Amino acid sequence: MIGVKDYENMDGFGMSTYEQVQELNKALSAGYDVPAATGGVSGSGLRVESLEASLKVITFQMQHIKFWQKIPKLPAYSTVEEYNRLTSYGSEGGAFAPEGELNTYDDATYTRQVSLVKYLQTVRKVTHPMTLVRTAHGDIIGNEIKNGIMWLLGKIENYLYNGNNTLRFGYSAYASGNSTNEGFEFNGLKNLIDTSMVIDADGDPLTEDILETAANQVIENYGFPTDIFIGTKPLADLAKVMFPKERIVVPFKEGQIGVPLNTFASQAGTLAFNPDVFLRKSYVTSTSTATGPSGYAPTAPQSVAITLAGAGNGGDFTKTNNGLGNYYYAVTYANRYGESSPMVSDVAAVAAATSHVQLTIRNAATVAVAPDWFKIYRTVAGGVNTGPFYLIASYAALQQGNNSYQTAGGGGTPFLGWTDHNDDCANVHDVYMGELTPQVLMFKQLAPMMKMDLAVIEPAIRWVQLLYGVPQLYAPKKWIRIKNVGEATI
């Protein structure tokens, strides 16, 4: 060990003997190791950990929730919410009559509509010891409640666009006297909008022309469009197309380039752009995404067989990146806990624009958990069997022609067939436009978002966060869907 005299004998200009330097290396050092994992090296056991007080959020935040924040909300008073529509003031007959003569009687037309309230929830739990320790980011229960709120809001935002009440979550959903034959999801805009109010962009990027056509179609159905809900990528592509054409009045601001597209001035009025990150493409994953108790994941398909029909079979393989060429399909079985791992098909070589592709989806030899619906993913033209695969359809896993499950069977019994006419393309986006007023669109809440404490049956605090409600589109022709919006290459 170096003594006092040794230090006194050191050269004042930093010169030391080899032995003196070796002795100094024995001093305590902080190091980079983690004492809890390594047992501590040198002085690292004395080092106080430094954890930043603020929690870094790397997922979506409240400002990303666009549709839910803007949709008008109204209380619901029953699990079955009914409303009347005034569909006509009278007949289309003439209003003129001869002098002194009485015209025929006329009256308005009303229809009664029904929506079923659906139940969304997330169950959370914090162990009792966790409430006693000093946590890094404040109250652990309070933080988990906030996390539950954001999780629910993310799900609601997605379902407001893509919800589908034909996806039946289980046999009991319609075997117990439920004459509506609905699943547990409510319908989102994609399924609420009238089928005549759909514009196909054919895989091309969004343009002013398409937006103007959509706005005109809404106003011709007596709507006053106010909002456009659009994915961030299609909106960015629209901006790219606009800039080179110098069609934007750019306010001068030193050092700034680019102009955000906030509104669209159409002949139907000025519409607000609402860029929403939840309007995005869906991909298949290589493994099961099912959550919940062990064994709740549906069994994956055993095989997906391809039958290619020739020309004249109602297909439309003429769209950008979805034209003639080789395609591969990936199919998953799904239930309310998630999806199975995918089964990839053989190649489908589409050589005629009006052909279609028939898929025959077969069960595994042993079906541990029967699916409630299946999801079909596909590549773009010229894709490979490793993907990427994009979601193009979801259908209830029912026998065709009746409302019961087809028996699982063994040895790959056929479960369901599905035909692809290329109505919905791969690697594309949806854009929605319409009148966002209480007279046209409303979310009816039987129970607003709330927290319900659960019984204490273990040394843990449990609760459920829930929301009961259903969106109602009173005028399905005052909203329009622009589908198959492609991406710009510039």
> What radius of gyration results from the CA coordinates?
31 Å
Helix content: 10-25%
Number of strands: 22
Mean pLDDT: 81
Q: Please tell me what the overall shape is.
A: globular
Unreliable sequence segments = 170-179, 399-412
Helix-and-strand structural type: alpha+beta
**Largest beta-sheet details:** 6 strands, mixed
User: Counting H and I runs of at least 4 residues, what is the number of helices?
Assistant: 10
Spatial order of the strands in the main sheet?
5-22-19-6-8-7
Distance between the termini: 69 Å
Describe this structure in words.
It is a single chain. The strands form 6 sheets. The chain has a 6-stranded mixed sheet with strand order 5-22-19-6-8-7. Strands 11, 12, 13, 16 and 17 form a 5-stranded antiparallel sheet that branches. The chain has a 4-stranded mixed sheet with strand order 1-20-21-4. It starts with a helix and ends in a 5-residue tail after the last strand. Helices cover 16% and strands 28% of the residues. The protein has a domain at 303-420. The longest helix has 23 residues, at 140-162. It is an alpha+beta fold and 490 residues long.
Q: What's the structural blueprint in terms of helices and strands?
A:
Blueprint: H1 4-8, H2 18-24, H3 35-38, H4 67-70, E1 73-75, E2 80-88, E3 109-116, E4 118-127, H5 128-132, H6 140-162, H7 172-175, H8 189-192, E5 198-200, H9 208-220, E6 227-230, H10 232-242, E7 263-266, E8 269-275, E9 303-308, E10 325-327, E11 329-335, E12 338-339, E13 343-344, E14 348-350, E15 357-362, E16 373-378, E17 390-396, E18 414-420, E19 429-434, E20 441-453, E21 460-473, E22 479-485
Parallel strand pairs: 1-20, 5-22, 6-8
Antiparallel strand pairs: 2-3, 4-21, 6-19, 7-8, 9-15, 10-14, 11-12, 11-13, 11-16, 15-18, 16-17, 19-22, 20-21
